[in-house]
Amino acid sequence: MQDLLIESQLRTSGSRAESPAQAPARPVRKIVVFTGAMSSYSVRKGIAELMRQFPAIDWLVCEHQPSRPVSKLVRSQIRNVRKHGWRWIPYQAADLAARIAVRW
Question: Which domain holds residue 76?
Answer without folding.
Answer: 67-104
